[in-house]
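[job 4471] stage=fold_predict status=RUNNING
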Amino acid sequence: MKILKNILLITALILAIPHFAKSQKTKSFLTPYSNLKPLANMDEMEYPFQVRKITLDSGPEIAFVDEGESENVIIFIHGLGSYLPAWKKNIEELKSDFRCIAIDLPGYGKSSKQPHSGKMTYYASVVKEFAEKLGLKQVTLAGHSMGGQISMIAALNYPELVKSIILVAPAGFEKFTEGQKQWFRNVMTLDGVKNTLAEDIQTNLAVNFYNMPDDAEFMITDRIAMRKADDFEHYCYAVVQSVNGMVDEPVLELLPKIKQPTLIIFGENDNLIPNRFLNPGRTKKIADIGKSKIPDSQLFMVKKAGHFVHFEKALEVNMAIKEFLR
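[job 4471] inference complete, writing structure tokens
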């Protein structure tokens, strides 16, 4: 059970206990990173773009980046345990055609870390309030993993704001029994997240890729360095609450009510969807379920790509996004 907890308590993802893919190759794998300088707080992390912050009337301060000039706006929403730099390869390319805004959700990255419910409806309301604070009338939401589930909830609850959605390896297409949901609640603990070993962090990050690229190493080093940050425990709390939020507010049966044009993107070699421990099977099967339920949707499967498909195969994903938004 301890091994399963360590695998669950990780980075950016959905409810899954992955197996380590034999195809993984990364120079950093299982290196100790003993020379990393600990962060005093998570605001010290280096981000690839200029960071701005805005305080919402409801309380949280949201850190975000805002690149490109266009009336066509994309708001990028990261996944469980992740942060906005995970979108850097997409923003770098897409900002020439679109206004690209990526946010750190409350409790994550450089955003404030007050306690909150972690519910998908809460995060969706934050996205709505954030967009209104910036004076945005209509936006496309691009969500990865948990961010995909948030994007679907936002599309359902705020159709006047969300004109289209891009779902990258989204959580929400897979069905879990009540017993499986309770199992997730039981194994996801604050202490487990806090005490994840450096070796487990490396393994857990690598399993998100078909073949982890060297330029993704910052995801490992940031996650290790933040363990001494004074706001790290608040981040861990947000991760635990987010897992509870995903299982407490499933979206699968609501998919037919999504009316916005939707692009669904999956890596064919996603080790996290479906959950290899609870629901073994092929990713394409889960992707097809989502596509069949969302009326105006198209599916793009990317070969030799894992759960972080938008980072691992950024060129293909960016081209698909451009074509979709045209």
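[job 4471] summary: The longest helix spans residues 232-248.
[job 4471] exit 0
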